[in-house]
Structures are given as C-alpha cells and as structure tokens.
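explain this.
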Amino acid sequence: MLRFPTQGRPQDEVQMPVGEDGPQTLHQGRVGRGFQMASGGSVGQPGNPFPASTVKMQAPFFRAAGLDLAAEVPGLVWGTINVELGYGLRRATPDITVTDVDWTDGLTGAGRIAPETFSFVRCRLIHAGRDYPGLIYLPHPETKPPTNAHRYDILEVLTCRVEGLADGQPVAVLCRADAFEPMAPL
C-alpha cells in the first residue's frame, strides 16, 4: 500500500501500480487557471513581456539539449494544465533536467531574463476515466523570473488535448513516487 495526499486532506491509502521505474504516486487535484504564459494565451496582456507561448519559445533550447517535447508527448499541446493540489510538493528526483536555458536571448526589456533551469517528470494525467501521457514541467524556482512566481501546490502538466477538460474539474497525476517530496502544509 502506498499513501498519497488528496486535496489537502489527510492521506488515504490506495494500492498503486509499480511501473517500470518503480512505485508510482497519484496526486489528485483540480484544474486551475494559470498565468497563461506557457500557452501564449496572455500574449499582449499587462504583466506578460513574452511575444509567444513560453513553452514553444523554450522548446528549441530543450531540443538542442536532447529533450524533444513533441517526441516525449505525442500530440503535445503548447501550454500546461495546472493541477492545483491543495498541498505543496518539492522537486526531488526528476527524470530530466536542462540547465542554463537562455530562451529569451534576443528579447529586450522585461522580456529578457536570465537563463533558467527546468526539470521534467514523466507522468500520466487522468481525467474522466482516461489517462494521457505527459511531462510535469518544473521551472526551478531559484532561476524563475518574478513575472510568474512558482507555486509549490501546482503541478504544471504538458500533455496532448484532453477531451472535455475545464477549469475546476477533478484530475489526477500519476508519476514516480520518488519524483517529489511533500512540504509542510500550506
């Protein structure tokens, strides 16, 4: 039996599968609305200095470092699904880390930020009885600009189109149990 947190309530016990990478943990939450920078939905809005989807802008740099997002996630949608957990998680053992990503090289003003470090954890997003392959997208807080501050109670998931998904709906993220460490209650 594995224990996993559910929506900020005390832990429940559930039998979880052991994947090829070891024990798995299920993080349950709800779809939340993010800054809309990863998807490009806030381009041109106050507070967003970037000219396009930040994930799409970062992708060539990830690919040059050996991570092809589109190959990792078939049918990838250029944006993240924000899964609000109700409890905090700290990155522990990611599957992939890409350091010193200077993805705003060529931008000026507020759009020019220092190089960032990103980690990724392979996962499955579960919604309405179906599961979708994905990557948990983890910009490192210590290199992330203040424009869109990191929240430890949200998992940002890169995945394909999820039929019928809407803000506020319940979802779950299945990933390796050792990928994250729990934080003190929020």
In short: The mean pLDDT is 83. Residues 32 and 82 are 5 Å apart (CA to CA).
